[in-house]
Amino acid sequence: xxxxNELCDDLLVKILLQIxxxxxxxxxxxxxxxxxxxxxxxxxxxxxxxxxxxxxxxVPSEFIDKFLERNxxxxxxxxxxxxxxxxxxxxxxxxxxxxxxxxxxVLDLNLLYCLHCRYPIRFPxxxxxxETLVVLRLRGTIIDDVPSKTRLRSLKTLSLRDMSFSSDQTxxxxxxxxxxxxxxxxRGWIASNVKxxxxxxxxxxxxxxxxxxxxxxxPRYDHGYVIDAPRLKFLHMVDHFSGFCSxxxxxxxxxxxxxxxxxxxxxxxxxxxxxxxxSLCLKPQMDSCLKGDFDQLVFLELCVMCSLDWLNVILKHxxxxxxxxxxxxxxxxxxxxxxxxxxxxxxxxxxxxxxSLETVEWIAYEGTEEEENVVKYLLENGNLCFKKxxxxxxxxxxxxxxxxxxxx
Length: 408
Known about the structure:
This protein is an alpha/beta fold. Helices cover 19% and strands 29% of the residues. The chain has a domain at 42-157 and 167-181. It has helices at 9-16, 21-26, 60-70, 91-103, 168-175, 265-270, 310-316, 351-355, 369-381, and strands spanning 43-47, 78-83, 108-113, 121-122, 135-139, 141-143, 157-161, 164-165, 183-187, 196-200, 206-211, 220-228, 234-239, 242-249, 255-260, 277-282, 299-303, 323-327, 359-363, 385-394, 398-406. The mean pLDDT is 83. This is FBD domain-containing protein. InterPro entries: F-box-like_dom_sf, F-box_AtFBL13-like, F-box_dom, FBD, FBL13/AtMIF1-like, LRR_dom_sf, LRR_FXL15/At3g58940/PEG3-like. Pfam families: F-box (PF00646), FBD (PF08387), LRR_At5g56370 (PF24758).
């Protein structure tokens, strides 16, 4: 077996790319062969919560400075700064690090800043003209204004967490700067100066939005989303706070996972009637009535804690449904109150029960009277039979039962 010291620099760099930057730098102490290899690594991944700081080591900001000064890789492809501790990272240092990365053609940039640090951090101006950036993840950053000539032509993945925008228009203008954006993640945007979070991105394929407050909070009916994404393929939305969600332009073939407490549920589902896969944690309104059929729907998942009332309605309007999953494991409703009414046996038998439905899976089945009534109804009126019932352990302590029905 050969000695690792005999490997060429390119192979050693590939190995070092797999470990944290602090450990990459420490390899310089191994031997003379390793003394300068770390300088060739085109990646700085620094997380101050795991940085082993002691009296003889450099403070975090000095560590970042020295790495960037001594790095001689042809390009700095990746810069990840996860700065969570209450340290004195000045805005000037923050801007300097980003400027160095931009000058060295960074492709993947994470700027995850602690919300409680001493100085507020504004979006670095040099990024507005960095046209080769492909991935950008931001946390705890302030965006007051967006220059009119901003155009990040290569950005495909964007993550926005705990951001502070100056207005509705600033959000709209910022997202318009990414002509080829395909993946967008939004977390924790609720603020008094932004009420309508407009996501108008023609190229967007995947949208993941989450505003999770926990427990049961009163809604802000004047806060919400407008989504205009004609090429969207996957939509994941969890929101315990906003009062509305408008899908004004989404494609027919869409996979959607919706967990909303407050909104016009009839109108929202009316925008999703062409979806092939739906996962719902969505409380129906009184006397819910869908306008149109889910004539492309083949998979449906419902939260039994809030959305079981949708079962009769959606089955009636889903002639091609093949798989149904019922679940009470969704975090959205664990602490909610008065989220649904009791399930009632429908008078008419939905077409899909006798023609297309092949499997029913109930996650966390508890065998309550209501649950037994639903299962009995499905067995009596569908071409289904009991297949399997077993218990699944989660994290070694908690477990729940799974019930499965299928075609005979």
